[in-house]
């Protein structure tokens, strides 16, 4: 058997599989296929909090009157030459 090229990669895959198994078990509980105690559900949620990032809600708002979001972009040429000057 060949040696593993990236040991960290296998640990990452193992964590994803474990998280997937926990999610599957909780889905079975929600669907009434498996009975879990409140302690088991709390433990599963605690384990998921460690392995799966929580999604957070972000709201982008404009000015105080509800207007559009204002943004701007600035380009700075590090070489001191503009693209048109460097083509010549």
Our measurement of the CA-to-CA distance between the termini, rounded to an integer number of angstroms, reads 58 Å
Number of separate helices: 3
Determine the fraction of residues in helical runs and give it as a percent range: 40-55%
Strand tally, please? 0
Main sheet overview: none
What value does the Rg take, in angstroms? 25 Å
Q: Oligomeric state of the chains?
A: single chain
The string of secondary-structure elements, in order, is HHH
Poorly predicted spans: none
Structural class: mainly alpha
Average pLDDT number: 80
Principal-axis shape: flat
Binned strand content = under 5%
What's the SSE blueprint?
Layout: H1 7-30, H2 38-51, H3 83-87
Helix pairs in contact: 1-2
């Amino acid at each position: 058997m060949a040696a593993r090229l990236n040991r960290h990669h296998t640990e990452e895959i193992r964590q994803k599989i474990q998280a997937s198994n926990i999610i599957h078990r909780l889905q079975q509980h929600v669907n009434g296929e498996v009975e879990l105690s409140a302690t088991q559900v709390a433990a599963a949620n605690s384990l998921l909090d460690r392995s799966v990032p929580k999604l957070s809600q972000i709201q982008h708002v404009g000015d105080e009157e509800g207007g559009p979001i204002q943004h701007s972009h600035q380009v700075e040429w590090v070489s001191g030459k503009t693209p048109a000057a460097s083509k010549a």
